[in-house]
Design brief:
Blueprint lengths: L1 E5 L6 E6 L6 H8 L4 E6 L1 H17 L3 E6 L9 H14 L5 E7 L1 H13 L6 E5 L2 H7 L4 E6 L2 E8 L4 E5 L8 H18 L1 H15 L3 H21 L15 H10 L7 H18 L5 H13 L11 H8 L5 E2 L2 E7 L5 E5 L3 H11 L4
Parallel strand pairs: 2-9, 3-4, 3-5, 5-6, 6-9
Antiparallel strand pairs: 1-2, 7-8, 10-11, 11-12
Bound molecules: glycine (GLY).
Length: 364
C-alpha cells in the first residue's frame, strides 16, 4: 500500500493506492471527520460489480449508505443529471451529515465532484476511481465539470476531494480496451516528466497488460505522483505549469471531436495525439528518430491505435480551432525535447502540424 500526499495547504489530501485498499477506507474516512452518511454516485455496472463490497466496508465502520446510479455515458455529465442527482441528494439529506463518494470512472468523478462543489455551497467528497484512466488522471487535481450542448466541460469548478482511494483490484475486471486507454495517460506522464517510468513501461508493458499486481501498482503510483506534483505547483491552472498535462491532448481532442466522439475513446485519441506531437517534436529537431521510434513502439505495444481512421484532415484541423490556444500559426503546443522533458512551444508552423496529422491518417 502506498500513500501519497497532495500538498495544497488547507485543501491537502491523501491518495491511497494498493491491492484491496478498499479494506482501509472506513478507517480513513473516520479520521477525516467529514460525516456519517455516504452518498455514493456510481453507474449500474460498477454498483453491480463492487457496490456490495463498498457498502459492506462502509457499514462496518458505522456509516450509512445510499447509492445513486447514473447512466454510464458522457451524457451523464449534463446539468439535467446534476439537477436530478441534487434533488435526490436533498431528499436524503434530512438531519444527516452527508459526504459524497464518486465511485466509477472519469464521468462519475467529474459529475460527483461538481455536485459536491455546489450542493450547500460545497460538501466533502471522496474519489474512488475504478478505471485506470480515472486512477491516474481524472480523480486527482480537483477539476470538476459537466458538459453543455455547446461544448465539453463548460460548467465546472476547482474543488479538491478529501481523499482519493485507488484500489488496484478494480482494474482486474476492466475490458482490455479500457485498460489500454488508461495506459495512454500513463505513457503521457512518462513522456512529460519521468524517463524512469518510460523505461519501466518499455520493460513491463506485458505484465501491465496481464494485470500483474506489482506492475499495476507501480504505474498507478508513479503516474499519480507526477500528476499530484504538477497540480501542487499550479492548482488552478494559472501559472501555465498544468498545461504540460495536455501533451497529446490538442490533436487528441481534435480527433475526438472530428469523429463526433464515436470512433475513439479519450485514451485512444490521446495516443494518436501524442504520435502527432512527437512527429512535430521530431520535425522541429527536438527529438531524434530513435526516440521517436521508441515512443511509437511503446504506444503500439500498449495496444493503442497508431492510425487515424475514418476522419479527414480538414475536419481534424478545423476542430483544432475550438481550442482557444490555437488560431492557426498562432498556437501553443506541448511538445517534448526528450523523454521526460515537456516543453511549451509557441507558433509552430501550421504546415508542420498538418503534415504530422496527415502522416497518421490511414489512407497515407
Ligand atoms: N479532475 C481532473 C483534474 O483536475 O485534472
Amino acid at each position: 500500500m502506498h500513500t501519497l500526499k497532495v500538498n495544497l495547504k488547507k485543501r491537502s489530501y491523501d491518495i491511497i493506492i494498493g491491492n484491496s485498499a478498499i479494506d482501509i477506507l472506513g478507517k480513513n474516512i473516520t479520521c477525516l471527520n467529514i460525516g456519517l452518511d455516504a452518498y455514493i454516485i456510481t453507474n449500474p455496472l460498477v454498483k453491480n460489480k463492487f457496490g456490495g463490497l463498498l457498502s459492506k466496508t462502509l457499514k462496518a465502520s458505522g456509516f450509512s449508505v445510499r447509492f445513486k446510479t447514473v447512466p454510464d455515458t458522457e451524457k451523464s455529465k449534463s446539468l439535467e443529471e446534476v439537477s436530478r442527482v441534487i434533488k435526490d441528494l436533498a431528499s436524503y439529506d434530512i438531519k444527516r451529515k452527508i459526504f459524497i463518494i464518486a465511485f466509477g470512472g472519469g464521468v462519475i468523478g467529474d459529475l460527483a465532484g461538481f455536485v459536491a462543489s455546489i450542493y450547500k455551497r460545497g460538501i466533502p467528497y471522496i474519489q474512488i476511481p475504478t478505471t485506470l484512466l480515472a486512477q491516474v488522471d481524472s480523480s486527482i487535481g480537483g477539476k470538476t465539470a459537466v458538459d453543455l450542448p455547446e461544448g465539453k466541460n463548460l460548467v465546472g469548478a476547482f474543488y479538491q476531494p478529501r481523499l482519493v482511494l485507488s484500489d488496484i483490484n478494480f482494474l482486474k475486471t476492466l475490458s482490455q480496451r479500457q485498460l489500454c486507454c488508461g495506459l495512454s495517460e500513463v505513457i503521457k506522464c512518462a513522456l512529460i516528466k519521468d524517463p524512469q517510468l518510460f523505461l519501466y513501461l518499455e520493460k513491463n508493458y506485458k505484465n501491465i497488460l496481464l494485470r500483474k499486481n506489482s506492475a499495476l501498482e507501480h504505474i498507478v503510483q508513479r503516474a499519480s505522483q507526477i500528476k499530484s506534483k504538477i497540480v501542487q505547483m499550479d492548482e488552478r491552472e494559472e501559472k501555465g505549469i498544468r498545461t504540460i498535462l495536455n501533451f497529446g491532448h490538442t490533436a487528441g481532442h481534435a480527433i475526438e471531436a472530428a469523429s463526433n466522439f464515436k470512433h475513439y475513446s479519450h485514451g485512444e485519441a490521446v495516443a494518436l495525439g501524442m504520435l502527432v506531437a512527437i512527429e512535430i517534436s521530431r520535425k522541429m529537431g527536438f527529438i531524434s528518430n530513435r526516440i521517436f521510434e521508441r515512443i511509437s513502439d511503446l504506444i503500439l505495444m500498449a495496444g493503442l491505435p497508431t492510425r487515424i481512421k475514418k476522419i479527414n484532415l480538414n475536419d481534424i484541423i478545423n476542430a483544432h480551432y475550438h481550442d482557444k490556444k490555437f488560431t492557426g500559426d498562432k498556437n501553443r503546443l506541448v511538445l517534448i525535447k526528450g523523454i521526460g522533458k515537456a516543453q511549451i512551444v509557441k507558433n509552430v508552423p501550421i504546415g508542420i502540424i498538418k503534415a504530422a496529422i496527415k502522416k497518421r491518417l490511414l489512407q497515407n
